[in-house]
Structure formats: structure tokens, C-alpha cells
Design brief:
Blueprint lengths: L1 E5 L4 H12 L3 E6 L13 E4 L5 H8 L4 E4 L12 H16 L3 E5 L13 H7 L4 H15 L4 E7 L1 E3 L8 E3 L9 E3 H14 L8 E3 L11 H24 L6
Parallel strand pairs: 1-2, 1-4, 2-3, 4-5, 5-6, 6-10, 7-9
Antiparallel strand pairs: 8-10
Length: 248
């Protein structure tokens, strides 16, 4: 399968590229700096461009079977309409080139997923991440309103843990605490979806099933969940400010 990958140099995007290459896909990485993937040698094609430019994306997308976007920010506090502008460019480019399949990575807490997030998460989403998530919400709705065969993916809090090869996905997942999922497993879900098409025209929330909680009936589990709530702010600030770790 010929795949164009936006955000290929980010942590989740890089996991996706590596997995796609190992699976035998023909991958084109759409990047601002081709040198960032120089170590992949001839394993992937490199297309230099700006994700906010329809002309650049269209030039790279022509001849591909699907587009996968793992675009993210270098710091989570910035909001410059990256996602709004990139979604418009991507939709226009897809329509121009006839590439109808799109798997788009968003963030848990954006749009309708805000309603099923915890109280602590809601506080973060409407303060520190307010502008960024507003930008993402507009982008997500533009994609859902397009004529593409889209899937918008909402992972819970991302970690750098290893791929476990498992995830729980659903249109609506009521949760408690601060569930997580590794970037490697998010990439695996997106790769499976671009090939399988189970979630076309749907917006799945995905999380590690071992941390997924519908009902809490065990005090030890509940205590662990509360601890996760209390450490959520620290984890977010450390990842977004201290290490400047992208959200995706």
C-alpha cells in the first residue's frame, strides 16, 4: 500500500513509519526537514513541504492510496492554527489528487471526547490547552464534514512505553482516572485501520485496555486511579514544557 505520512518525524509518526516499512508498505514521509529521517536511507521516499500548503501536500499525495496524519506540536502550549490550516490543505489536496482515504490523529479531550474526560483533565483542557484544542476541534470537524473516507483517532494520554499489541477502541468510552496508551500502540492502531477500514467515518477513542475502567469496584484500583489524577498535571507539564515533548 502506498502511504503518505504527515508528521512522520514526530514520536507517533516515526513509530508509524517504522511499522509501515516493516510491513512492506511503500511510504512517503512528508517533512519540513528531510535530514530528520536521513537514517532511513532508501527505505522511505521523502517529500519536503509545508503541511499548511495545499500545493505542497497535493504534489506529495499524487499516486498514493491513503494519507495518514500524525501531525503534532513541538510544544503543547502553542496554537497558531496549524491543525485548522493543515486540515484544509489536506482535504483540498486529497480531493485534487483523488486520494480519498485519510487517517487523522487528534487528541483525547478535543471535541466530544471532552465530555467523557475526568474533572482534572477538563481543567487542563479548558486552561493550558484551550487554544490548541480549539484549533484541533475545528480541524476535526472539517475532516468529518469532508467527502473523504476519514477516520479521526482520539488516543488517551500518550506514553513512550513499548508496543503491547493491544488497545480498546470505541465511539464512546466513559472513563475514570487518567488512562494512557503508548505511542507505539497508537501507531499500530492507525496502521491496522488504514489497511482494514473498520472505523471509516467514525471517531474512535483508543486506550490501553488494562487501564480502561467503566466501573470501579476495587479500592486498590480506585486508589491507583486517583493517584493518576493527581499526577496528570505534573506529567503534562513535564512533557510539554521541560522536555518540549510533542502531544502526538
Amino acid at each position: 500500500m502506498k502511504l503518505l505520512v504527515l508528521g512522520a518525524t514526530g514520536p507517533t509518526g516515526r513509530h508509524f513509519v517504522d511499522l509501515a516499512v516493516r510491513s512492506g508498505d511503500s511510504v512517503t514521509a512528508f517533512v519540513r526537514d528531510p535530514g530528520a529521517l536521513a537514517e532511513l536511507g532508501g527505505q522511505v521516499a521523502l517529500a519536503k513541504g509545508d503541511a499548511k500548503s495545499q500545493r505542497d501536500v497535493a504534489a506529495a499525495a499524487a499516486g498514493h492510496d491513503a494519507i495518514v496524519s500524525a501531525l503534532g506540536r513541538s510544544t503543547s502550549m502553542q496554537a497558531d492554527e496549524l491543525f485548522t490550516r493543515a486540515s484544509s490543505a489536506l482535504i483540498g489536496a486529497a480531493e485534487e489528487t483523488g486520494v480519498s482515504r485519510l487517517v487523522w490523529l487528534s487528541s483525547f479531550g478535543v471535541g466530544a471526547t471532552y465530555e467523557v474526560s475526568s474533572a482534572t483533565q477538563k481543567l487542563i483542557y479548558r486552561t493550558l490547552l484551550r487554544a490548541l484544542y480549539a484549533d484541533k476541534a475545528i480541524a476535526d470537524e472539517r475532516i468529518r464534514s469532508s467527502g473523504l473516507d476519514w477516520t479521526v483517532v482520539y488516543p488517551t494520554r500518550l506514553t513512550d512505553g513499548p508496543a503491547m499489541g493491544r488497545f480498546h477502541a470505541g465511539d464512546h468510552l466513559p472513563m475514570r482516572g487518567n488512562p494512557t496508551i503508548s505511542r507505539a500502540d497508537v501507531a499500530a492502531f492507525m496502521h491496522r485501520e488504514v489497511h482494514g477500514g473498520t472505523w471509516i467515518h467514525r471517531s474512535p477513542v483508543i486506550t490501553d485496555p488494562s487501564l480502561f475502567v467503566l466501573l470501579v469496584g476495587n479500592r486498590e484500583i480506585y486508589r491507583d486511579i486517583c493517584h493518576g489524577e493527581l499526577t496528570f498535571i505534573t506529567a503534562l507539564l513535564e512533557s510539554s514544557i521541560t522536555s518540549r515533548r510533542p502531544l502526538v
